Amino acid sequence: KKIAVFISGGGSNLQVLIDEIHQKYGEIVLVLSSNSNAHGLMRGKNNEIKSIVFDSKESDFDEKVIAILEENHVDFIVLAGYLKIISSKLVNKYPGKIINIHPSLIPSFCGANHYGLKVHEKAIEYGVKISGATVHFVDEGADTGPIIMQKTVSVDYEDTAETLQKKVLDIEHYILCVSVKKMCEDKLILKGRKVKVL
Ligand code: GRF
């Protein structure tokens, strides 16, 4: 399977896909960043993966992105720390073929204005005892698509947003790798909102 990975920042999720999935279960053929100085771009380039910047504010953004995805025969897209909302045009072009990793147990602490450290600040502020990460299919909303996998972490009294972020990032890497491997093996069965992982 040919995979495109969309990033906006450090790309630690991209890196684990490069290390664990790339040229083993699938091939990452494209890294697309919404941010020209995302460190994740270097991760792609260091592994000879075509790495490009697309500013989603550009007028014909969707057409350009779809053209390059088709040009590279992309089978599915992974949003890994990508901070822009995917347009319905792109979602409908790749139905059931776009997955996202979010650093909380959806439907808690998610949506357009919950990203990065803010997610963990809200969890700490609320005083939850567990948090975690979610991999889900992308639909037209923000973090609202059918859930593929979730994994929890304990939130201790001493935890700060930063210590929680670190705990959650470690398990993001784990569940993203398992989910992408299952995508490569066509082992994710989507029925309505329910996902069966074979
Ligand atoms: C992290 O907050 C992660 O939880 C979310 O995007 C941010 C950056 O991830 N998925 P990465 O290190 O760029 O993969």
From TrEMBL:
Keywords: Purine biosynthesis, Transferase. Residues 1-177 form the Formyl transferase N-terminal domain. InterPro entries: Formyl_transf_N, Formyl_transf_N_sf, GART. N(1)-(5-phospho-beta-D-ribosyl)glycinamide binds at G11, S12, N13. The record marks D143 as: Raises pKa of active site His. Pathway: Purine metabolism; IMP biosynthesis via de novo pathway; N(2)-formyl-N(1)-(5-phospho-D-ribosyl)glycinamide from N(1)-(5-phospho-D-ribosyl)glycinamide (10-formyl THF route): step 1/1. It catalyses: N(1)-(5-phospho-beta-D-ribosyl)glycinamide + (6R)-10-formyltetrahydrofolate = N(2)-formyl-N(1)-(5-phospho-beta-D-ribosyl)glycinamide + (6S)-5,6,7,8-tetrahydrofolate + H(+). It holds the Pfam family Formyl_trans_N. It is an enzyme of class 2 (transferase). The active site is at H102 (proton donor). GO terms for cellular component: cytosol. One of its GO terms (biological process) is 'de novo' IMP biosynthetic process. One of its GO terms (molecular function) is phosphoribosylglycinamide formyltransferase activity. (6R)-10-formyltetrahydrofolate binds at K57, L83, K84, I85, I86, N100. Its EC number is 2.1.2.2. Belongs to the GART family. Catalyzes the transfer of a formyl group from 10-formyltetrahydrofolate to 5-phospho-ribosyl-glycinamide (GAR), producing 5-phospho-ribosyl-N-formylglycinamide (FGAR) and tetrahydrofolate. This is Phosphoribosylglycinamide formyltransferase.
